[in-house]
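Intended use. Records like the one below are meant for learning the mapping from a protein sequence to its folded structure. Do not use them to infer anything beyond what is encoded.
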Amino acid sequence: MKKYLIVFLISMVPLIELRGAIPYAVGFGLPLVPSLIVALVGNMVPVPFIFLFARKILEWGKDKKYIGKFFTWCLEKGEKGGRKLEAKAGAGLYIALLLFVGIPLPGTGAWTGTLAASILDMDFKKSMLYVFLGLLLAAGIMLLASLGVFGAINLVK
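Structure written out for the chain above:
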């Protein structure tokens, strides 16, 4: 149970998310289906709050002494991600959101994608759906990558 809690918590951490939680679960030999469910739920827990409140909090804190630089960086990252999504996607903005969240590259994921959706004032329900679908894609990619890496390590032993 403790390792599942760790999977859940890792998947909630910005920039790490389920991209770190799934390799952890695979590396520790946890059963795959429960681990994927726990990682997906953990990654989705902050998403509605990010969409509804993050921009407001970041705007409030961007000129504060100790947190201003970090909050400004987060806003710029979200705006940059949002602009990229908008420029590349056009009418396929939600598909672009799915791919932005789903392809596990540094700086992409549910946190950044949701912040970008919030900054672009996208529809809440559709954004939540496409972020979740993106997480399913990311989970599949990370599972395959993790099984390959850890499978290769087991062959060496």
